[in-house]
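Supplementary notes for students who missed Thursday's class. We covered one full example, reproduced here. Read the sequence, then the structure, then the short commentary at the end.
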Amino acid sequence: MRVRETEAEALMNAQKEQYEARITALEKVNTELTSALAKIQPLAGFGKSSIVLTRDAADEEKRQIEQEAMKWRDKYEEARGQMKEKEQTEKELKYELELERKNGQALKVKQQSSAPRPRGGGGELLGSDHPPTLQTIRFYEDFTNLLIVRMKPQLSSFLDLQDWTMGCIFTYIPENDEEKRWSLNFNLTCSWEKRDPDDSAPVTSTSDLHEMMYYEPLELDKESPEIVARLGIISSGFSFTRDQVALFLRTLYNTFEEAVAGPGEEEKGEEGEEMSVSD
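Structure (token representation):
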């Protein structure tokens, strides 16, 4: 079975072929220039009838060829460096592409699960042949209304750990009112940091660290100022510790509930624990 090549994979393969061809051409030019330089050096060993250039002219030509060879060697090394960067980028793109495929599958299942369908076992649900992991993701999304559409790792500053940046979509659906469905796109970065930022002692274990979450809303510039104002604290970025994730999710839900209800209804929400956030 022939696997269809995605646009990202096609672009990545084309760039790789382009840089491989460039390196081959540079190696060929480098070989030719080196050969030409070697032919100039023995001129002084021939008889008088063989000397057709003055010493100064020969030295000047030799100098020019050496400079040209050096220029092409620099370009060759530059191309090799770019090739290494492309190979690293290729690895990262492949990793992100695999995540996108998995998230795409999860999104299809979530969309199918939110559509009206008969209950009581009438018919098989699309995606029921997927591994249990996919079903687990689906249940988490249904319970939380939170969809993670992308995830990108980056090396932490401590202990070779990894930080993660997640692209998220939170969807609020009022009870019995599908028309007021409201979604928010945001990034959530999980970063390892020192428990005491002022402590200059080296970090030796994860017990010296804790995980901080950095929230950053996206695309709010497409909303009206009135809508943004009704979002309150979640209309701008802030940070909090990872042990407050459940409280963060509750804050999202409560904020949307009040925003959809509109003025005059905000006082009706239940009072609860407040998040401890930092700008």
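Commentary. DSSP finds five helices and five strands in the chain. The first strand starts at residue 146 and ends at 155. If anything here is unclear, bring it to office hours.
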